[in-house]
Amino acid sequence: MARIVMKFGGTSVADLDRIRNVATRVKREVEAGHEVSVVVSAMSGVTNQLVKWCSDLSPLHDAREYDTVVATGEQVTIGLLSIALQTIGVEARSWQGWQIPISTDGAHGKARVEEIDGSRLVAAMGRGQVPVIAGFQGIGPEERVATLGRGGSDLSAVAIAAAVKADRCDIYTDVDGIYTTDPRIVPRARKLQAVAYEEMLELASVGAKVLQTRSVELAMKQKVRVQVLSSFEDRPGSMVVDEDEIVEQPLVTGVAYSRDEAKVTLRRVPDKPGIAATVFGPLADANVNVDMIVQNLASDGTTDMTFTVGKADVPRAREVLEKERASIGYAEVLADPEVTKISIVGIGMRSHAGVAATMFKTLAEKGINIQVISTSEIKTSVLVGAEYTELAVRALHTAYGLDAPA
Ligand code: ASP
Ligand code: MG
């Protein structure tokens, strides 16, 4: 007997037939003798609609009320799935974040999980019940519903798996695993049997949409074994595990891309000590995540500062920079959303030189201009014009020998 957390994403619960399919899968695990907790997302498209309603009313809406609105999607699916399970003879009960409770901090819209008390869930499973838990939500310090950021039900699932000490956290989705890159762009992408936590963390953070970044961070920290698999097929998926478990380590494991960032340039910033703090401090205070940064020195004592932020954060970033205009002392702000960040990731990069050089050479041969570069120990990312996305991803996938045999 094992204790398993099963998480189903939006496409897996997109309509009643699919919810029935999920119920069947849950029943199978219960009948195999396992203790099961289920975490679900909202029906696909629902959260987007809810987000849009908030933004349409006001682009700078109150984040607490945003949470009140967007947390409703999951409340619908936990109720429906519980009914579907009961209908086929599985004892199930729905749980919202506050009922567990999943306690978060007060950063509404992208709250962090501070603590989960797993005891009620463990007790329910012990009584033979299947808890059906709303992903994406918890309860903040003011006792208001708080959401965990987009894709946050993955985080809910991993956090619950850690809290109830599950043997495994199975993330059911509409793809059957983790691929070397997006198969829609590269048909010869390969499915990976196992990916190291660290690699998955980098892949997720640079656009591989299959798992939310923070969920991978948490899985790594808490050593939760995660499996990504399809809710529509009966095949083993990809495991996300400790790097020791991975026998053959290629140089580059995957190529990822993200169209979610926009390039922001501050023109003619005075080049003096403390200026970066004056720019990025207030952005951080406003919860605007900054990713890549470059600074170009001009000869007249000023500098152009270019960085990337989430596309959705551009209005907020502009507002902050406008407010700080006098203290920073820049000439103008430019925002360009027509960019894509392309990244190569692999633990093998740690011990091999020249991996990034191959990337730059490959892009140069295709005539693709690199606008910004950033690197970490096991990742190199470049920002390129959005129109080059497919070309760049395909060329890099081939250059690192990732194409499946024809
Ligand atoms: N429904 C939420 C979203 O679309 C959470 C999730 O699906 O993971 O972001
Ligand atoms: Mg998701």
Structural class by sheet pairing and helices? alpha/beta
How far is the N terminus from the C terminus? Answer: 42 Å
CATH superfamily of one domain: Acetylglutamate kinase-like
Main beta sheet: strand number and arrangement?
Answer: 8 strands, mixed
User: What is Rg?
Assistant: 22 Å
Hetero compounds: aspartic acid, magnesium ion
CATH architecture of one domain: 3-Layer(aba) Sandwich
What name does CATH use for the topology of one domain?
A: Carbamate kinase
> Briefly, what CATH class of one domain?
Alpha Beta
What is the approximate shape? globular
How much helix is in the residues? 25-40%
Quaternary structure: single chain
What does this entry look like structurally?
- With about 400 residues, the chain is α/β, with parallel strands linked by helices.
- The chain contains 13 helices and 22 strands.
- Strands 3-6-2-1-9-13-14-12 form an eight-stranded mixed sheet, with helices on both faces.
- Helix 7 packs antiparallel against helix 8 and helix 12 (about 355-365) crosses helix 13 (about 390-400).
- The longest helix is centred in the N-terminal third of the chain and has 16 residues, at about 15-30.
- The two termini are about 40 Å apart.
- The model has no long low-confidence stretch (mean pLDDT about 95).
- Bound molecules: aspartic acid (ASP) and magnesium ion.
- Magnesium ion (MG) binds near residues 9 and 151.
- Magnesium ion binds near residues 9, 151 and 154.
